[in-house]
Design a protein that fits this description.
homodimer, about 325 residues, Rossmann fold, 6-stranded parallel sheet, 4-stranded parallel sheet, 13 helices, elongated, DNA-binding
Chain lengths: ~325, ~325
DNA sequence: CTGTTAGCGCATTCAC
DNA sequence: GTGAATGCGCTAACAG
């Protein structure tokens, strides 16, 4: 593998000059620049980032820790991050935590070994050790999805508590009174919990409460939603609306209704969360809340690139959400 | 940041001994090991991978280049890769190529700067420059999804040509004769093209051919499928089955039928590709082909970890596919 | 605009 | 079982 020394020799300049050309940094005579560039091309030189990283004590890696890759939500966030990073020198290293703070901590530490320029993770809840690393590190930090709390550096997302609250208000306004809720088994999904709490608050303010709940004993999926609704309705007849923690499960709920011949909306309202494309492409578009996942990822990465140094104050960016009325509630 | 020298000093050993403990390599007296370990804990030492990488000329990074993150297919692959990498020291760096070989080449080169232990990419078609880098590099290479061709090192996937062929045979056997095809605009999706060719071959062998095609002028999505089918049926009445390049679009096709009151299967067969969960959770499960995306990612990563050195011979692993009869064709 | 010097933090190669 | 010397390839800080 050719090194910078080889390039420098061929171009008859010093290593540091060649280095400056590679990094497009500092003033370089055009003639010199072209000589170095042609030497690079001739040798097929590829800079060694490990060496560069070591010498400069900073890397072009950005650590991304996501809770899951099992539905399109976090890939959407990742896509936003990647979009912001295209055309920059930064590269995302990704890890999946399975919603487990201890796994998050473990992966975080292993990522810090690369002296990343920034760390992106989901949510504001981390283990004490992880939090300590995040606070004392010499890198930027973005905490995504949620803004209900105190970020280490930047938070980009929406208030899930408020989304749950608005869901409740919206459904009450539309005349629904007998609420059911179908959850999944990921108790560490803080966002889903916050939405749940917001929903309960809205119901309480309306003099109502959830009259039935079912927890599907497994991860979230369309099938989970379908089975959860079936069990919920069997156990508690007379529900007029069921709220799901996300669109995947809500779609499953609709599929159950189609199968069981239940008139969605008239007989039973169905409400989701996320605003996935597929739900909106259905004959009766899913009533749900649109989260801005791509925007969250993109905004966070862009914000992180603005400055290498962590600013004194914390930044909270609310990307908001939209209620999609849809046709299922 | 504490360095190995700090650890060594505190543990009263040399740097190299501390290094051996960190890497769990070479014979170390138990007492020494414990002393070093406690020094590490006391200082909160995190190894600097850039330095390690530079010194050993090998890294624990695995470059992963995916065509897209817009549907769940490649996140599934990534999940498989990540699963295989959990509990190992390896970390995936990911890049998205948007199905563009030139983008793939650019990202590949920028990834090679980290001296990755392995490179994972999709398909067997790359630019000549990319191919050259892959062939001459001192890292393992896995080419995923497709096995119709000559891999650089390892190929893990299935024959898309055969999948298309089997689709055609299957549908002919079920009595369908008037075939339509609804494609999307990604001409560089080699796998979709291969399936298309396989389908045409099967039709030809059955004395048939596609009697209508429509290319949706945009990326693949449920909405694309829905609109494409509508246009296809308007232009060519009398089709009895429409094949889609993937489940997302096929779901859109079903949604159009539901909306337009077309009896799926009896009046119009719908066939997809991928076997996504959501399609199988529908009241009438989608007829499609199950690709083993998670398995492909997992198998590839596991295979790559078996040996750092590239073996003499090339390996092709066929993960196969299953026809899901479903209820829509 | 270009070069010199020094060192980033670790692992390899040998010696003991 | 442990250590000393050396260098990986690059860049920061200065000097000119």
């Amino acid at each position: 593998m050719p090194t910078l020394a080889d390039v420098a020799r061929l171009a008859r300049v010093s290593e540091i000059t060649a280095s400056r050309v590679v990094r497009a940094q500092g003033p370089i005579a055009e003639a010199t620049r072209l000589r170095v560039l042609s030497a690079i091309a001739e040798l097929g030189y590829i800079p060694n980032r490990a060496a560069g990283s070591l010498a400069s004590a900073e890397s072009t890696l950005m650590s991304v820790l996501l809770p899951s890759l099992s539905n399109i939500v976090f890939p959407d966030v990742l896509r936003g991050i990647h979009t912001a990073l295209t055309e920059t020198a930064f590269q995302p290293v990704i890890g999946v935590t399975d919603y487990d703070p201890l796994v998050e901590e473990r992966i975080l530490v292993s990522f810090l070994a690369w002296q990343p320029a920034a760390v992106i993770l989901a949510g504001l809840h981390h283990t004490p050790t992880a939090r300590r690393h995040l606070e004392h590190g010499r890198f930027r930090v973005a905490e995504l999805m949620d803004i209900d709390g105190e970020p280490v550096d930047i938070a980009v997302g929406m208030s899930h508590r408020q989304a749950g609250y608005e869901t409740g208000k919206h459904l009450i306004k539309r005349g629904y009174r007998r609420f059911g809720y179908a959850r999944h088994n990921i108790s560490t999904d803080d966002r889903a919990s916050a939405r749940y709490e917001g929903l309960c608050l809205a119901l309480k303010e309306g003099g109502l409460s959830l009259i039935a709940e079912h927890c599907y004993p497994g991860a979230s999926s369309t099938k989970a939603g379908r089975e959860a609704l079936q069990i919920l309705l069997a156990a508690t007849p007379g529900l007029d609306v069921v709220v799901f923690p996300n669109d995947d499960m809500a779609m499953g709920g609709i599929f159950h209704c189609m199968h069981a011949g239940i008139a969605v909306k008239e007989k039973l309202g169905i409400f989701g969360f996320n605003g996935l494309d597929i739900g909106q492409a259905m004959p009766m578009p899913l009533s749900t809340i649109l989260s801005k996942r791509f925007l969250i990822g993109k905004t966070a990465a862009e914000k992180l690139l603005e400055s290498r140094e962590r600013p004194a104050g914390k930044t909270i960016i609310d990307t908001g959400f939209d209620i999609i009325e849809g046709a299922t509630a």
